Design the sequence.
């Protein structure tokens, strides 16, 4: 728990750095006045004075509570203002909010993590946590896809992941180019012939809605059980603390009951992938 009492009151936070990841995506390195102890999968609300507030899932190591990283795609009013921030600027943070990944349910299991595009951001924080607990599960596989090789986040780190003995990584791009020597095809094409027992394994998916939809369908076809598929769901949010109903998914509030959901809990709702 951190020390904030009024859930609407942001913690004053200093921008320590703003790192360009891709033409559309930057990572903010943020130092909140009070440490924010989040679990992988939880999110925070970032306030930019004069522009508004928006939810983001930290991409940093959850155990490093003094410094938070948010990786943010420029899509609108708040995120455009985020991309203009510079070292020394002040922003606000409230959180942590929502539920993270239920790590206790992953114990002694084989784990497949599937990421698409900006979905690498929350997954990086999860991967740090899994690396720290690698003795708790049997096997860890990461499959990630982007539209093109320029759009991969954390390129240096992905190279380091490929060297890890406790991780099996494969990456793909939708469209290849001369600089890309790897696999070409959407991320589901990397899910054939996985070296794991899908019927007992856990799958974690984060990415744009269409990627989540197609990946979930593929995982079901491969034998993953619905309660073992975990999805990180994005919805427009307002209060972010389960009061206003902006982020409803069927009977659930994504901000309070999620954003991490088991597929079996939400699969019946018709607007799931919108
Ligand atoms: C729990 C949660 C975690 C999130 N984590 C991240 C994260 O780690 N990194 C990140 O970049 N984003 C993340 N998002 C999405 C992020 O909150 C939105 O992109 C942001 O709220 C947009 O605010 P804005 O004011 O810039 O855009 P607005 O001005 O509100 O929207 C402008 C336009 O962009 C569209 N739009 C809004 N969001 C998106 C989107 N995600 N992709 C494409 N078009 C969009 C809107 O429909 C609208 O047409 C997360 C969302 C949730 C709910």
Sequence:
């Amino acid at each position: 728990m951190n020390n904030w009492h009024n859930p609407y009151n942001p913690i004053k936070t200093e921008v320590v750095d703003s790192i360009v990841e891709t033409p559309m995506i930057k990572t903010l390195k943020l130092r909140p006045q009070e440490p924010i102890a989040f679990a992988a999968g939880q999110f925070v609300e970032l306030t930019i004075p004069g522009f508004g507030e928006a939810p983001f899932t930290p991409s940093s190591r959850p155990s490093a509570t003094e410094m938070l990283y948010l990786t943010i795609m420029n899509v609108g009013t708040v995120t455009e203002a985020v991309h203009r921030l510079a070292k020394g600027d002040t922003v606000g943070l409230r959180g942590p909010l929502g539920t993270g990944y239920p790590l206790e349910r992953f114990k002694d299991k084989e784990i497949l993590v599937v990421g698409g595009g900006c979905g690498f951001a929350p997954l990086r924080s999860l991967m740090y946590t899994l690396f720290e607990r690698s003795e708790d599960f049997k096997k860890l596989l990461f499959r990630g896809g982007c539209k093109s090789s320029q759009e991969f986040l954390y390129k240096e780190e992905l190279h380091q992941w490929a060297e890890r003995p406790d991780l099996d990584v494969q990456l793909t791009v939708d469209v290849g180019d001369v600089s890309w020597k790897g696999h070409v095809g959407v991320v589901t094409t990397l899910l054939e012939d996985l070296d794991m027992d899908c019927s007992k394994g856990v799958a974690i998916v984060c990415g744009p809605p269409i990627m989540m939809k197609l990946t979930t369908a593929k995982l079901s076809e491969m034998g993953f059980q619905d309660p073992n598929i975990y999805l990180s769901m994005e919805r427009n949010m307002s209060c972010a603390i389960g009061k206003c109903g902006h982020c409803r998914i069927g009977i659930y509030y994504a901000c309070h009951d999620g954003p991490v959901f088991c597929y079996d809990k939400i699969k019946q709702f018709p607007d799931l992938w919108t």
User: Anything to note?
Assistant: The radius of gyration is 18 Å. The CA atoms of residues 47 and 53 lie 4 Å apart.
